[in-house]
Amino acid sequence: MLQLKTASGIALGNLRSRNEFPPAWKTIAELEQVTDHAIASFLDERLRASKELGGAFLLEELADRALRTGEQELMDGDRLNDREKLDLVRALDRQNAVMQIYPTLIGIVLPLALEAAKRTGKDAHVLELAGGTGGFALALAEKVRNEGLPVRITGSDIVPAYIGEARKQAENRQLPVEFIRLDALDTDGFGNDACDADVVVLSQSLHHFTPGQLAVMISRSVQHPTSAFIGIDGYRSVLLAAGVPFIASLQAIPSFAIDGLISARKFYSEAELGIIAEIAAGAGSHSVSCSWPLSILCVRFGS
Which of 87, 211, 221, 248 is the one with CA 20 to 30 A from 12? Predict the structure, then answer.
């Protein structure tokens, strides 16, 4: 529930038939604006389709709308200090470790990196954006070190405290990974040599960004020697809307449980992810799949 695949297909078909999708854009600023507008138009059209379908289709649409929120997570706002935010990110790393999320993420990203290494004949570069304290990058680096794989890894985030924590862990565990401070939405920063990558990853952070911001990240990846953009986040569903905050509450950190609830309400549906990718990179460039409890967006940029 909350994927609304039937109504989504009808809605997108209606928009295409009226030549309202995909929207044209020329500049990055235009891309962000038209993507935000396109998602809003799609959701309005999906509501109309759900009303015409009636019954369970309309109930699912209403449930989705009741759960949706634009509320900001505590870790992204000003109500918590840096130490408290760092505690939340550490809690997320612990939760991912217990739930074995990192092996799943590695299984998604590593084959694409090895494919790039084979094609270019040199170590593939994996860049993670908005990676917090680097839980995924550290886990991937451990895999690469243990198996001697031709991959180099850079983790990044905009918060200095997160980067400091990640660097400390990498040093303590003697892992081959670099961490840099980087704003994922900064055009100039994303284009420097340290950030050029074969595979760009945005893991468990898609819901922290607007549709337009995600489109901008994908488009910037196209403009550099990147072979793939991988976006991974929670699967939009009623089960996760209840389950994520429940699991988060087990760590007895109230703010972490609150953020779990907010995040689960903000996960994108597969249709929304597909729309964002098509606007940013063109039709036929992407795939969206589910590896429960994750949604996986893969945008390929050619050989």
Answer: 221
Task: Answer yes or no: pTM beyond 0.70.
Answer: yes
**151 and 23, same domain (yes or no):** no
Buried b (16+ CB within 10 A) or exposed e, 168-205: ebbeeeebebbbbebebbeeebbeeeebebbbbbbbbb
In contact, 48 and 8? CB cutoff 8 Å: no
Distances (CA, A) of 249 to 11, 240, 254, 290: 37, 14, 7, 25
Which letter does DSSP use for residue 178 in this model? E
Pure H helices in the chain: 5-17, 28-53, 55-67, 82-98, 101-120, 135-147, 160-172, 187-190, 211-222, 238-249, 254-266, 270-281
Structure tokens at 232: 């991974």
Work out the angle at residue 164's Cα, subtended by the Cα atoms of residues 161 and 166, and round it to the nearest 5 degrees.
110
- Structural domain that includes position 41: 5-67
Extract the tokens encoding 241.
């809307």
Tokens of 25: 């854009």
Q: Is 202 helix (H, G, I), strand (E, B) or coil?
A: strand
63 with 81, same domain: the answer is no
223 and 286 together in one domain: yes
The pLDDT tens digits of the residues spanning 39-93 come to: 999 999 999 999 999 999 999 999 999 999 999 999 999 999 989 999 999 999 9
Q: Are residue 41 and residue 100 in the same domain, yes or no? A: no
